[in-house]
Amino acid sequence: MRYIFIFLLLLQFTTLSPPSALAQRVPRPAVAPQDTPRVAAQDTVTLQAPKGDIETTIKYSAKDSIQFEVDRKVVHLYGDAKIDYGDMKLEAAYIEINYDNNTLTATTLTDSTGQEIGTPVFSQGAETYAAKRIAYNYKTRKGRISEVVTQQGEGYIHSEVVKRSPNNEFYGLHNKYTTCNLEHPHFYISAGKIKAIPNDKVMSGPFNLVIGDIPTPLGFLFGLFPTPKSKRSSGVIVPSYGENARGFFLNNGGYYFAWNDYVGTKLTGDIYSLGGYNLDVSTDYVKRYAYRGNFRFTYDFLKNDEADVESSRSTDNILSQLPPTQRTFWVYWSHTPVTKPGRGSFSASVNAGSQLHQRVNYNGTAQYLAPTFNSHVSYQKTIPNSPFSYTIKASQGQSTQTGTMNFVLPDLNFSMSQVGLAELFSDAPATNKWYEKFTLTYNVRASNTISNIQPARTSTNFPVLDTSPADTIEVNFGNLQRLWESGQKTAIHSFGIGLGNYKIMRYLNFSPSVNYNETWLDEKYSFTFNPDSQRVDVDTTGFGRVYQYSAGASLNTTIYGTVYVKGEKVEAIRHLIRPSISYSYRPDFGDERFGFYQRTLVGTDPNTNLPRYQNLGRFRTGLPSTGLNSSLSFSLDNSLEMKVKAKNDSTDAKFEKVSLIDNLRLSSSYNFAADSLKLAPIQLSFYTKLFKMVNMNFSSTFNPYQTDSAGRNIDKYIFDARKLKLARLTNASLNLTASLNPEAFRSETTLPANLPSLVPDQDPVLPQYVDFKIPWTLNLNYTFYYTRGLGVASRNNLTQTVGIDGSLNVTEKWKVTYTSTYDISNQNISYANVQIYRDLHCWDMSIGWTPFGLLRGYNLTINARSSLLQDLKLTKRSNSVYGY
């Protein structure tokens, strides 16, 4: 009775009509005519069932027709059939609903050409399956799917038969697991049985790798592939393997801890067959709209017993290239805030550790060759509605070559941006008085500079007879107080006073200024000559104060000159001249009245037996230079441009500007207070861009004075001896760079020289990114440097180099990049590198060769493109050196 009731209910919402042509072509089930009423399909039929096996409303539709078999309790849907049942959806060319056994069956149909159409697609929640045949029990929520392809994370599973359990897990038979998204994948992992837990993992039994339908012996007894989709998850990081100077290794294996959506920690390590190991802890964190950062600590134990034997360093043993057994560490910390107006921001960039750590743990050319590493931690804030801001900072720098470590702790900075002097002393509105143009800027920096290497007293600061040696302080917790006490504590005050800008004769800009700097120091010295020991004794007298001031003014203008040509292509040529003259005055702070220097007896001249005196600085840092300065500086800047007819304009009205000379600069200075050689060397520089793609930079220096046989300047102008010659060229440099690529011919903008395909990643011969969309690039550069010998016996020095780099798409899938530098002066190739890339759709292949230099060698890598199978790769490399 229940199904009769359902059937009668459906009849109220349907209209009888003949079946379509498609329905007539499809074979119908063999049933008695009197028991098989035919009902034409509506767009959507809604069936609300009484309480029983059906839990919710079933919505279904068919584009062609719907047939009911009441006695068998079966409904047939033909042509673009669709069913919605709760969160489950099913689409196919043909669907059968069987109310007797609570099943849905979907298959394809064959059209008049013999082609199968209407592949069944089953979806429930976020899961979607496409297959040749789908059978689903909507009561038990179990299913059986034949010839199915489903996506799990980044991977695709091709299965002959899949059974689906009520908890959404499914089990596959005769499977192919791949990250290739083609119907016939280029590669896959062949496994007889697979179990997939959606949004979690895919597990398999014994499997092997198949490439190009060719089975390989690569495989394992079981497989585990994580497939997280909706959130971060913890999991095992599978290590890679190989061999280097430290032996056979397992590299970068460990575990990832996903604490929450904002913090994650990766714990990995390396182990080597010769006894060494490496531990690495890295934590990423982020807070939306506030900050993001990464903290990483790495510890390395290098075991190299053979390096302790001196004779081994003279052999070809690769271990002789590494340092002796030692333990090293390194700390990275990067913290980047999101700047908000009126709020302070904390930032950090820490890159510090043991001296040899970066070389032993070789990670790329830049890391290996870096001479210094710098770190800082700072907090900065601008006080709202005021010109004041402050910064609290701590910084550190270290040299990997000398082992020197310098710290600035603390480093406090307080500054006031430019304000009008009238605003500081009065709230009255501005009246455009001349003195209202005066401005003031102020900055104070208080710091404590610490170094683990204290210089000897015979250094530049103390050129006296005290021969105390340099002192090296080991950086550890036990020496913190000693390091702090050895620091140089200073406070530097800087005042800048602007006296306004004024127009003179309508076209000249006149700008006077005054500057004052004062430095407070924690130590001041007094020198006394001891005749008995024939040395200078140095006494510390405590707090010291050093100051200096200067005044100056500048005068500049701009001159335009235009010549109208009125030609077919050229409209006019304009010359722009910017002359500038400035004057500065600074007293001689080496005078005894300032007390910054002390004229001290330092012994007796061995040639004349007369007393010898020296002007010694009484402070370690912050000393102003000696000598009176009264200088007049001048410069002349020129630019030349041409107004031509636009290429894309057919009328005579529109023109565009073309630069002929971007800047031609001539500059020098003249010190009126100097006793000799008052005119400084003359500087001439030139910059322009040719044909919108060639950059030209030229700079040179000219000496206006005559020289003696040793190459020293004498106080006589060259012009006095040779009336037709004003100065002598002492050095010159020329740099030409050209970037040729398709974009350069289409627009004025050219691609940058550091294209991603030409910037090496951590591997020096494996680039991070290759863009196959750019058909070709070509970058050329030429460098010329000339230095003239100063003395009669000296020679002129000439250096020339030419370089070429670029890329070429040989085919749509093959790309070659190249880089080479040739030293013309020495007639040798200083650097060369060739890379060949192959786009294998779901695989990448690269071949690199560096025939010259420190990192000469080759590299061959074939790897799966998906990050899910990042460890599925083949690497073969040979480098001349490793690490140290």
UniProtKB/TrEMBL annotation:
<protein>
    <recommendedName>
        <fullName>LPS-assembly protein LptD central domain-containing protein</fullName>
    </recommendedName>
</protein>
<dbReference type="GO" id="GO:0009279">
    <property type="term" value="C:cell outer membrane"/>
</dbReference>
<feature type="domain" description="LPS-assembly protein LptD central">
    <location>
        <begin position="202"/>
        <end position="705"/>
    </location>
</feature>
<feature type="signal peptide">
    <location>
        <begin position="1"/>
        <end position="23"/>
    </location>
</feature>
<dbReference type="GO" id="GO:1990351">
    <property type="term" value="C:transporter complex"/>
</dbReference>
<dbReference type="Pfam" id="PF19838">
    <property type="entry name" value="LptD_2"/>
</dbReference>
<keyword id="KW-0732">Signal</keyword>
<dbReference type="InterPro" id="IPR045659">
    <property type="entry name" value="LptD_2"/>
</dbReference>
<dbReference type="InterPro" id="IPR050218">
    <property type="entry name" value="LptD"/>
</dbReference>
